[in-house]
Design goal:
The chain is built from 8 helices and 13 strands. By secondary structure, the chain is α+β, with helices and mostly antiparallel strands. It has an 8-stranded mixed β-sheet with strand order 2-1-3-4-5-6-7-8, sandwiched between helices. Strands 10-9-11-13-12 form a 5-stranded mixed β-sheet, with helices on both faces. It starts with a helix and ends in a 5-residue tail after the last helix. The structure holds D-MYO-inositol-1-phosphate and calcium ion (2 copies).
Length: 270
């Protein structure tokens, strides 16, 4: 499979940072038995991965802007292009040695996502998409699942943890969806949840209170796989609202139909 020069740059950067994360995962497994656990070590691993990604992407595309979860915004001379990067999505999984985490790299041009990559170094799954050129998992073309009936679908969600998000709303949403689907899942890495929708493993996914770097790459990968991605209002931009719902056009619509009114029902939410 021949990819553009930009995709090659992204793949090279992700694989190098991925090797570092995979090595660190080994150490995390050793540190589980210690009293303090691997928390500080993981923070360092996360930062190290982001610095590697920044340095490789900046070297190959000097001047592009860079928004990373760890380092924040780094302006570049080129105001049209911005990398949106999560060096380690699924930190809690990583911290516990659960191999469901990923590097996520999105590239925006003039406000439009033009390329995305999600890479899980633990199992070497590499998801890619470029605007107008389709989505791929390890060079195999991706297509979202075709199911139209919610009661046959496996759907993933996010769950707010202690001190974050609206727990009452989350429980309400889960109860509603749970009653109507074949299976509900919580995997713990938003980027991979979206990649799973793109690859048809999951029929749909929703979550609230995310950040742009959780979804930037996933958004274009799902869309290039033929899926629909929006905020929970159904027509809002997830990168702006932080709320996301995706699936094929039918399942996306079904999920919006259930979730949108619940958000209004619980005070303090749009
Ligand atoms: C988190 C993961 C998780 C989602 C959280 C995100 P992080 O990202 O994507 O699945 O539920 O809301 O913050 O912190 O592991 O990069
Ligand atoms: Ca994240
Ligand atoms: Ca992260």
């Amino acid at each position: 499979m021949l990819h553009s020069a930009t995709i090659n740059v992204m793949v090279k950067a992700a694989r190098r940072a991925g090797r570092s994360l995979k090595r660190d995962l080994g150490e995390v497994e050793n540190l589980q038995v210690s009293l303090k656990g691997p928390a500080n070590f993981v923070t360092m691993a996360d930062k190290r991965a982001e610095e590697m990604l920044y340095s490789d992407l900046d070297k190959a595309r000097p001047g592009y802007g860079f928004i990373g979860e760890e380092g924040g915004v780094r302006e570049g001379a080129d105001k049209s292009h911005t990398w949106i990067v999560d060096p380690l999505d699924g930190t809690t999984n990583f911290l516990h040695g659960i191999p469901q985490f990923a590097i996520s790299i999105g590239l925006q041009r003039e406000g439009t996502m033009i390329a995305g990559l999600i890479y899980n170094p633990a199992n070497d799954d590499l998801y890619l998409a470029e605007r107008g050129k389709g989505a791929f998992l390890n060079d195999q073309r991706l297509r979202v699942a075709g199911r139209r009936k919610l009661n046959e679908c496996v759907i993933a969600c996010g769950l707010p943890h202690i001190g974050r998000g609206d727990h009452e709303l989350s429980r309400l949403e889960m109860t509603e969806i749970q009653n109507q689907v074949a299976g509900l899942r919580r995997f713990g890495a938003a980027a991979l949840d979206m990649a799973f929708v793109a690859s048809g493993r999951l029929d749909g996914y929703w979550e609230r209170n995310l950040q742009p770097w959780d979804m930037a790459a996933g958004q274009i990968i799902v869309r290039e796989a033929g899926g629909i991605v929006s905020g929970i209002e159904g027509d809002d931009d997830p990168l702006k609202t932080g709320n996301v719902v995706c699936g094929n056009e039918f399942i996306h619509a079904e999920l919006v139909k259930i979730l949108k009114p619940l958000g209004k029902q619980v005070s303090g939410n749009q």
